[in-house]
Amino acid sequence: MYSVKEMFYTLQGEGAHAGRPAVFCRFTGCNLWSGREQDRASAICNFCDTDFIGTDGQNGGKFATAESLANKIKSFWATPEGTPYVVFTGGEPALQLDKALVMAMHAVGFEIAIETNGTKPLPRNIDWICVSPKSTTEVIIQKGNELKLVYPQTDAMPEKFNALQFDHFYLQPMDDLIDKPGQTNNTQDTIAYCLRHPQWKLSLQTHKIIGID
Ligand SMILES: C[S@@+](CC[C@H](N)C(=O)[O-])C[C@H]1O[C@@H](n2cnc3c(N)ncnc32)[C@H](O)[C@@H]1O
Ligand SMILES: Nc1nc2[nH]cc(C(=O)O)c2c(=O)[nH]1
Ligand code: SF4
Ligand SMILES: [Mg+2]
């Protein structure tokens, strides 16, 4: 059984594929935060910008089989043109994305991306792996396509990750959910870090800038 918070067709906002049309499938639940505001301060990951509780979002629901979820995802790709692309996110998608769903998505012709915190094993054959380390957690997914670190995090500074095996290293300014002026500092500090350490590139959350999902 797969539990999905929401699904929608939009542009990937972040990282190396920013601007690319994709179906987003947001799974319910995460291993680093309950998702409840009263638990945020004590959570391992405490800056999350996402509501991933329940199945009540747009096109959310429970799916009994990989094939039924794959067919639903396919229904949001509205054109015969291009290679259909799905981004599995959450919550933490590694808690639910399994071999059966990877096979079912490939069977309906999709390329598969994942946005993961890197603390849980992944099934084989995911086409694009984006790992975003959090706080003091151990990153067990040590290779992939992009490492996209939210910056700054006291317990997860870039030096900890710069020797891992990724093709792209991105820093994404922390969207400060409370202190909006603080956000400007995060962006300026991220730019300054990239300029000093050019292994790292800036990733902006462009969907927030242009006002799409
Ligand atoms: C909501 S997470 C879901 C996927 C997975 N649990 C993870 O953390 O990578 C999706 C992406 O948003 C990033 N993110 C979450 N909160 C953010 C914030 N306040 N500012 C900037 N990026 C954020 C995460 O680091 C991750 O790259
Ligand atoms: N447009 C858009 N791009 C995204 N890239 C990663 C997202 C996520 O929440 O995982 C996200 C999202 O929520 N929307
Ligand atoms: S690991 Fe990802 S989904 Fe979980 S709380 Fe952190 S940012 Fe949100
Ligand atoms: Mg998001």
Structure at a glance:
With 213 residues, the protein is an alpha/beta fold. The chain has helices spanning 66-75, 99-107, 180-196, 206-210; strands at residues 2-11, 21-27, 61-63, 85-89, 111-116, 128-131, 143-151, 165-173, 200-202.
Please give the structural blueprint.
Elements: E1 2-11, E2 21-27, E3 61-63, H1 66-75, E4 85-89, H2 99-107, E5 111-116, E6 128-131, E7 143-151, E8 165-173, H3 180-196, E9 200-202, H4 206-210
Parallel strand pairs: 2-4, 4-5, 5-6, 6-7, 7-8, 8-9
Antiparallel strand pairs: 1-2, 1-3
S-adenosylmethionine is lined by residues 30, 47-50, 89-90, 92, 115-117, 132, 148, 150, 172, 174-175, 177, 205.
Binding site for substrate: 11-13, 26, 89
Keywords: 4Fe-4S, Iron, Iron-sulfur, Lyase, Magnesium, Metal-binding, Queuosine biosynthesis, S-adenosyl-L-methionine
Function: Catalyzes the complex heterocyclic radical-mediated conversion of 6-carboxy-5,6,7,8-tetrahydropterin (CPH4) to 7-carboxy-7-deazaguanine (CDG), a step common to the biosynthetic pathways of all 7-deazapurine-containing compounds.
Could you characterize what this model shows?
With 213 residues, the chain is α/β, with parallel strands linked by helices. The chain has one domain (2-210): Aldolase class I (TIM Barrel, Alpha-Beta Barrel). The protein is 19% helix and 26% strand. The protein has a 9-stranded mixed β-sheet. Strand 8, helix 3 and strand 9 (200-202) form a beta-alpha-beta unit. The two termini are 26 Å apart. The model has no long low-confidence stretch (mean pLDDT 97).
